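Ticket #4471: structure output looks truncated?

Reporter: J.K.
Steps to reproduce: submitted the chain below (292 residues) through the standard prediction queue, then opened the result file.
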Amino acid sequence: MEYTIQHETSYFYPETVYESYTVLHLQPRSDPNQFCTKYDLQISPSTRVQAYLDRFGNDVQHFAILPRHRSLAITTHSNVVTLLDPEPTEPSEATRALLDADERVERMYDFLHESSYVQFTPELAEFWRELDGPGEAIGAWCARVSQHIHQAFAYDGEATTVRTTVEGVLRARAGVCQDFAHLMIAVLRSAGIPARYVSGYIFGGDSRVLGAEASHAWCEAYLPPYGWVGFDPTNERLIDDHFVKVAMGRDYRDVSPVRGVYRGSRHSEMSVNVAVDVLQGSSAYQEQQQQQ
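Returned output as attached by the reporter:
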């Protein structure tokens, strides 16, 4: 699939801001499963942008605005070609024996232990009572964990905030994609299965897909012999060619789309608008037009 993505983030300040510093994780990754053919970043007020590659291989931009300002607008336009299977199958051949024998797991400390949002709390231990143990067939078990989170938790944008940890999600029994990804990661890591947090986008099309109106998040588990396999507990589905990966890390703290600090106004208002569409002129776009 070929997609065009527009992501707009705007901040409004009731009082003058004297300076602001911002870090962005908005550029889609290029890897064996997708490649970004266009990435355009626009910032107002205009400023010079610096870029670097972080420890997880994510493309990161950062900038400072020193003149006084009352608003900040960040807009990106991206084109991405996704190459994943449109109908992925459950990783049923992944087993505990293969995971235990994989030498690469020793280098995955970050994805096996606690992190800022993912902690092994008493609430998580209690949640384990709702789950059967992973046993030998860990691939099929990961799919069941995703299914259980989807069915047992309500999708509610008012139940949590961007600072909510796994403990808070379990208490609320509700949340959004960020929360469900963190919860699944916590369950998998506590079972000894490497798991990492992925931020990106999901194409909703004409169907009702949760998380399509903004940045999306999901979980990837390391499952030999497949490697990293993506699960979206928010929509109870495996990651396919409708997903665009932007960044990955231990949890939301590593890959938040827009993060920054400023000096001046005590309060601010933020608005986010995301649009993911099939790229005009692509074969998928032509097929979509013929179906309409």
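Triage note (M.O.): checked the attachment and the full token line is present. The chain has two domains: 2-82+255-291, 96-250.
Status: closed, working as intended.
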